[in-house]
Amino acid sequence: MNRNVTMIGVPMDLGQNRRGVDMGPSAIRYAGVLERIRTLGYNIEDKGDIQVKKETLGNENIHNLSNLDPVTETNKSLARTVSSINKEGHFPLILGGDHSIAIGTIAGMSGYFDNLGVIWYDAHGDLNTADTSPSGNIHGMPLAVSLGLGHPTLTTINGDFPKIKPENVIIIGARELDEGEKDYIRQSGMNVYTMHEIDRLGMSEVMHQSINYLKDRCDGVHLSLDLDGLDPHDAPGVGTPVLGGLTYRESHLAMEMLAEAKMVTSAEFVEVNPILDEKNKTAEVAVALMGSLFGEKLK
Ligand SMILES: NC(=[NH2+])NCCC[C@H](N)C(=O)O
Ligand SMILES: [Mn+2]
Ligand SMILES: [Mn+2]
Fold it and tell me: Which of 18, 61, 135 to mutate to test the pocket of ligand 1 (most atoms within 8 A of CB)?
């Protein structure tokens, strides 16, 4: 993997209703992310946080899109930052913040790849648009937005074109999908490993298949890891926990196999909410998983 890593925090909590997830980047830093990755021989630099501009915050939920303006503005500046990190030849490592920030990360990366692959590690599909969303929360929409679906204010960030293609996306860990998301998955044929498939095949086989699939068709791979992909017993500090999730061990195996495959070109770890956490456990889990993603080994 790229030895030069640039880390950015995005203290965003406006993509959903529960306060505290804006403190995710601090909690992850406090859990020792820099030392953890530096020890592995990387040249890692922390460039600090993207400013989340709350001045544009109204209380309104126009068109079933809560906080559309500040979420848009923040993602625009994140996209610019990610794009410049990638241009310098560094690996962007993004710390969330709620999952709405994937809109900016993916928009920033997409310009450099003809076929950017995305591994969406999550209990949810985040494939809603304003028309299908039960909540109006933009953190339930970033994968749809990246595919070019949804409100033009969001889909045109960093260019008026879809940033990724459905056939280059793999969702891993899904166990709570809304009706509109299920319809989209059926009609697009997107690759989704729900908990059912993971239970049947085992994580080793799921990652083996995912890696082989993306290797043949993609020129870069973005990992978007929502901590709620893990079971709430292992990652309690998240705003939308869903029982029956991926274990700590399965998640480490997934990261280790990605490290071996040397295919990931950017990553984000999102939805860590210290207010809902138990003694910073979820931030520590995030850092441990980053360790494995960057090649930590016992022998
Ligand atoms: N990134 C997340 N945690 N997303 C949760 C989304 C929950 C629900 N599907 C919604 O759209 O509101
Ligand atoms: Mn989720
Ligand atoms: Mn998510």
Answer: 135
pLDDT tens digits, one per residue of 196-211: 999 999 999 999 999 9
Closest C-alpha to 235, from 281, 183, 275: 281
Relative to beta strand 61-62, strand 43-49 is unpaired
Q: Does residue 299 fall inside a structural domain?
A: no
Tell me whether residue 194 is in a domain: yes
Q: How confident is the model at residue 56 (pLDDT cuts 50, 70, 90)?
A: low
pLDDT value at 81 more than 70 = yes
In a domain, 298, yes or no: no
Which CATH number fits the domain that encloses residue 124?
3.40.800.10
Q: Give the pLDDT mean for 166-190.
A: 98
- Residue 184, classed as helix, strand or coil, is helix
Q: ipTM beyond 0.95?
A: yes
User: How many domains does the chain fold into?
Assistant: 1
Give me the catalytic one of 13, 22, 98, 126: 126
**5 — pLDDT class (breaks 50, 70, 90):** very high
User: Identity (one letter) of the amino acid at 31?
Assistant: A
Task: For tokens 């599909």, name the residue.
Answer: 125
Q: Which domain holds residue 49?
A: 4-293
- Tell whether 91 is covered by a domain: yes
| 151 is annotated as an active-site residue | no
How many CB atoms within 10 Å of residue 61?
14
